[in-house]
Structures are given as C-alpha cells and as structure tokens.
Design brief:
Layout lengths: L32 E2 L52 H12 L3 E2 H4 L5 H6 L5 E3 L3 E2 L9 E2 L9 H12 L3 E6 L10 H14 L4 E5 L7 H9 L4 E3 L9 H4 L5 H14 L4 E8 L5 H13 L4 E6 L14 E2 L2 H14 L3 E4 L9 H11 L10 H5 L16 E2 L2 E2 L10
Parallel strand pairs: 3-6, 4-5, 6-7, 7-8, 8-9, 9-10, 10-12
Antiparallel strand pairs: 1-11, 2-3, 13-14
Helix pairs in contact: 4-5, 5-6, 6-8, 9-10
Length: about 400
C-alpha cells in the first residue's frame, strides 16, 4: 500500500502541539536521531532536539544510516502531536460512519487525525478498507477484499458537498483483485464530485494499477486536478518496503500521466527513516523531477506496530534536515515541496496546489489566504504535520493523504 500516511503510529503529548517541540540543536548539521522507536500512541520526548547519530556539516551526510537500537526509547520531541477530540472531530466521525465512508486518516493511523478532523478535513479512502498488498510500512488491513460499492462515489460527493470543501483528496486501498484495479470507481468519484461541487478541486492518490496504462487513462479521463502516486522510498529499499510495486514502475506511471495529460499536475511522496542515505534521497528527488513531477512531499516514517512485518525506524530526521530538503527540492525545480517530520501525502494539499500554481505563474484562488500565496517562493518549512482534503468555511484547511496501493 502506498500512501505513506499509513505508516504512522502517532506520538501523543497533551502539552505540545504538532510540529517541532524543542529543537536544541544548532542547525542542520546536528541532524537526526538514531531510532529506538516505540510504536503506537505514546508520549513523546527524550531526544531534546540533539543529534543521536548525525554528524557535523551538511545534514544527513554522516555516511551509512544509523542502525536500529533496542526498542523502548520515546520519539523525539519534534514528533509530538496534541490529542484533542473536539466537537468537529466527533461531528466528522459521526458523518463518516453515518454515510459508510472510510478515511485513510483512520485506517492508516495518521498522527494528524485530531488536527484534521477538528478542521473538518479528511482523505476519503474508496474501494473498501482491505488491501490486497502487504507493504511493510502500512497499517491498513491486508486480505481478500469483499467490497465493491458502486454507490460509493455519490456518497463521497455528498460528504464533500455537506462539508463545503474546496479541495478534496481521494485515495484507495490496492485492489489487485479487480481487472482495472478500481480505476473506474476513482473516475466515477471524481465525476460525482464535479457534478455536485463544480468549484471543488479534486486530487487523486492512486495505486500503480500494475502498470496498466489503460486503467490510468480511465482516471485521467475524469480530469482530476492533481494525480498523486507515491514512490515511497529510495530505489535500493523499494523491493524491501513495498509489496508488488517497483520503483521504476512508479516513475513510469508519473511520466505516463504527464505525457497523456500534461495539464494535470503530478505529485509524489517519500518517507525517510528506513535506512536510506542522504545521497539516495537526493537521487530520488532528481528522479522524480526528471519524470516531470510537479509537487513532492517528504516526511518521517513511523512504525505502525511491533508486528515483524512492519519495518523498524532506522533514523529520526531533524526538522532542519527536512528544511534543507525543501530548499534542495525547490532548487531542482519542483513547483512545491512539502517537507517536515509529520508531513504525509495530503498534508495541506490545498495549499500545496495553490503554492505550486503561484510558483508556476498561475492564479491563486481568492479563498486562499494571502500568506499562503506569499509563501510560495519563501522556502519556509511547515513541520506541523500532514493534513488536507480541502478548504472548509472559506479558510485553508488540511487532510491526510491516501492509502493507494503501491
């Protein structure tokens, strides 16, 4: 399964909000911590913002990735998120249950669910909640799917209309049991949203459809505003981390999408902390840019459970390292780079799209706050966490990215 929001076991602290809590280090040179992570919902702390394995100089260039230490240490302070179940959180939960809809926010155990749900945002996960793949970073259930609901597209569109969203993200589990991988349900969902909410931007986070470009074309024919497919990790680790998917097939899908529909923005994401080197991260960014990807997201991998199928965290990257990767990504020519410890595929997806338009000279919708447009070329890093399905109530909000099968 591909959207790496699934790979999250949230770190919870009642006294600190999302984002870097205490970064006592002096800059990018004092990069990440070696990982001895505790999966699941735990109290963050212990790192005190100091290096536990990085070296001086440019972040992440300390040679080989840090080795995994015995489990038990708490997550670094900058991975704290606030657990707060406010009125909007409970309202959205009731709405989703009442309409028999799934979200990747819940299925993938995203750490930003409290923030996003309170902002009335979520990423819809279609085609059921059982995936045919068993990726080693993913919290979504693997098994034999039993669900193919042709009425689901209209229910998703109804929810989008009720919430008044201006940007919505739709993802799915992998459905290798279906001949088209579920492409027609993606397409019908996009069209249903267009009929009910013609001014709403629609982003899809899709699986690789096993390299079936006819299935890809079915989705492109529905004219989503953004087509997202995550490469997830660096080339060397791809076979270890992902089930059935391949690094080159993911790159090919992104390139094919741009070739067939050059007006549709493409987007991809990768997670860090699985044992990659700094040079491999940069190689992946160069590969994505060479395949004409417009938007990229970069965040920290967190182990969903202690189950042996889920890979341990090899390193915690410091917020300064994510800031450096954002700077490098923009210099490579990406229209937008969202980079931070808690960033996931759909983190501030609406703002990502607007900033990308601003950098490429396109018009920024009036509903977006002026600071969002101004930030397009500022290179600032948001480390607060992944969120974005849309803009509700006339203000930018966020919702987590999808569970699309690798």
């Amino acid at each position: 399964m591909e959207a790496w929001n699934q790979s999250i076991a949230a770190t919870v602290a009642g006294d600190a909000g999302p984002g870097p809590a205490a970064a006592g280090s002096s800059g990018p040179g004092s990069a990440g911590s070696t990982a001895t992570e505790t999966p699941g919902f735990t109290t963050a702390g212990g790192a005190n913002g100091k290096s536990r394995g990085g070296s001086g100089g440019v972040p992440g260039r300390g040679g080989d990735p840090a080795a995994t230490a015995p489990t038990g240490r708490r997550h670094p302070d900058w991975l704290k998120v606030r657990l707060a179940q406010g009125p909007n959180y409970n309202r959205l939960k009731r709405l989703l249950r009442g309409m028999s809809l799934h979200t990747v926010c819940e299925e993938a155990r995203c750490p930003n669910i409290y923030e996003c749900f309170e902002n009335l945002t979520a990423t819809f996960m279609i085609l059921g909640n059982i995936c045919t793949r068993a990726c080693r970073f993913c919290a979504v259930t693997t098994g034999r799917p039993t669900e193919l609901d042709w009425a689901e597209p209209e229910r998703v569109a109804d929810a989008v209309e009720r919430l008044g969203l201006q940007h919505v993200v739709v993802t799915s589990v992998a459905r290798d049991d279906l001949r088209d991988g579920g492409a027609i349900i993606f397409a019908e969902t996009v069209r249903a949203i267009r009929r009910r909410c013609p001014d709403t931007a629609v982003e899809v986070l899709i699986p690789d459809f096993n390299g079936d470009w006819d299935a890809l074309q079915v989705v492109l024919d529905a004219e989503p505003d953004i087509l997202n497919h995550n490469v997830e990790t660096v080339r060397r680790l791809s076979d270890k981390v992902r089930s059935r998917a391949t690094y080159d097939r993911s790159l090919a899908l992104l390139a094919e999408s741009k070739r067939r529909a050059p007006h549709i923005k493409t987007k991809s994401g990768l997670m860090l902390g699985l044992g990659e080197t700094w040079d491999e991260i940069l190689e992946t960014l160069r590969d994505l840019r060479a395949h004409q990807v417009d938007i990229v997201t970069i965040g920290q991998y967190l182990r969903p459970t202690r189950d042996p199928i889920h890979l341990p965290v090899e390193k915690y990257y410091h917020p300064d390292e994510f800031a450096e990767l954002k700077r490098i990504g923009l210099a490579l020519g990406f229209a937008h780079v969202e980079s931070g410890p808690l960033v996931r595929s759909s983190y501030h997806a609406h703002e990502q799209a607007d900033r990308a338009r601003a950098r490429q000279g396109g018009a920024v919708p009036a509903a977006v706050d002026a600071t969002v447009a101004a930030a397009a070329g500022a290179g600032e890093t948001s480390a607060s966490g992944p969120a974005v399905i849309g803009v509700a109530g006339g203000r930018a909000t966020g919702a987590v990215g999808g569970a699309a099968g690798a």
